[in-house]
Amino acid sequence: MTKATNLRLDYDVTILPPKSFFQPQNETLLSFQRGKGYRSVIETEPFLLLGVHPYDMVAITQMDEIFSQGNGDVHYVSRRQNATIVVVDVENVSPDVFAGHMGTYKVEEGWDVLLTKVADQYLVESKTERGAALMSSLADVPDADQGWLEMRQLVWERNKGRLRRHELEAEPSTWPDLLEEAYDHPIWEEKAKLCFSCGSCNLVCPTCYCFDVRDEVHWDLVSGERFRVWDGCMLVNFAKVSGNLNFRKDEAARYRHRYYRKGKYVPSKIGGQIACVGCGRCITACVAKIANPVEVFNRLAGGR
Ligand code: SF4
Ligand code: SF4
């Protein structure tokens, strides 16, 4: 985008989450050449991500934790370190969002600048040196007084109530315990009967980060690249291993695994945070209309 007039800060939800800026769909990790060895390919270009919604910012902070653990993922970390993020509080409510239930209707960390539309103007707050540098061009703009801060608080309160297009009865904090008892619940088979294994629910999810690593040799047969591409646990080949074995070959097993990732497995890696931010993209994207986490966890909370 080159013109400020093309900016739409009032959008309801993007089709894809901003994860692609940190973990592109197709990303070269290294290039190699016979006789010369290999060279890591690491992106170091600074960039600005403008207009990220709070629930997506929460997802980015979760991914920051995932990709920094252990040896860390230099490709992700480098992109993240080069990003300046401007979050904008939600103006228009998307069809399937439930961030109001997930505590992600607003966000307090991770961003450099926060924009909140208050009475037809934007209240701007910076959190970091990068944010302050961005805001230095606004030197003539008056400081917000207490009244403006109170109005912003009202925007947050309103969003907490508005971003609830689906009524979640099972508190997110109960999800790990619900799953503890749910491995043989009939819901997995019932829902998965309609699943096309298309993987759309994975691809649109801001907290799905699985990838596959592949090597490609160029036509010259002496050089090539190692790259990674997005993968998804709902795809039939995701759990295929050598010997043509697939340890999650049934739709129901894959469907169940996805909810265990969101409510139990990933939370166990990131201090108990639920790995669903309530963006609702999976609900919208699923043509079979079976990918609604609210429906699943409400059902688990209601017994069988
Ligand atoms: S599981 Fe669905 S609602 Fe939750 S973060 Fe992923 S796409 Fe959004
Ligand atoms: S989007 Fe729906 S149909 Fe496609 S894999 Fe996910 S649950 Fe199955």
Describe this protein's structure.
- The protein is of the alpha+beta class.
- The protein has one domain (4-301).
- It has helices at 54-68, 74-81, 99-102, 129-135, 146-162, 175-180, 187-192, 200-203, 251-265, 281-285, 293-301, and strands at 26-33, 37-40, 47-52, 83-88, 113-118, 121-126, 211-217, 223-230, 240-241, 245-246.
- It is flat.
- The termini are far apart.
- It binds iron/sulfur cluster (2 copies).
- One iron/sulfur cluster binds at residues 204-207, 262, 276-282, 293.
Looking at this protein, list some descriptive labels.
single chain, 304 residues, alpha+beta, four-stranded mixed beta sheet, 11 helices, 18% strand, flat, binds iron/sulfur cluster
Helix-strand blueprint:
Blueprint: E1 26-33, E2 37-40, E3 47-52, H1 54-68, H2 74-81, E4 83-88, H3 99-102, E5 113-118, E6 121-126, H4 129-135, H5 146-162, H6 175-180, H7 187-192, H8 200-203, E7 211-217, E8 223-230, E9 240-241, E10 245-246, H9 251-265, H10 281-285, H11 293-301
This protein binds iron/sulfur cluster (SF4) (2 copies).
The strand line-up of the biggest sheet is 2-1-8-7
Bulk shape: flat
Whole-number count of domains: 1
Overall average pLDDT: 96
The N- and C-terminal alpha carbons lie at a distance of 50 Å
User: Strand content of the residues, in percent?
Assistant: 15-25%
What is the element string, with H for helices and E for strands? EEEHHEHEEHHHHHEEEEHHH
Q: Outline the biggest β-sheet.
A: 4 strands, antiparallel
Class computed from helices, strands and strand pairing = alpha+beta
Number of strands: 10
Low-pLDDT segments: none
Helix content: 25-40%
Rg, alpha carbons: 21 Å
Number of helices: 11
Cofactors and ligands: iron/sulfur cluster
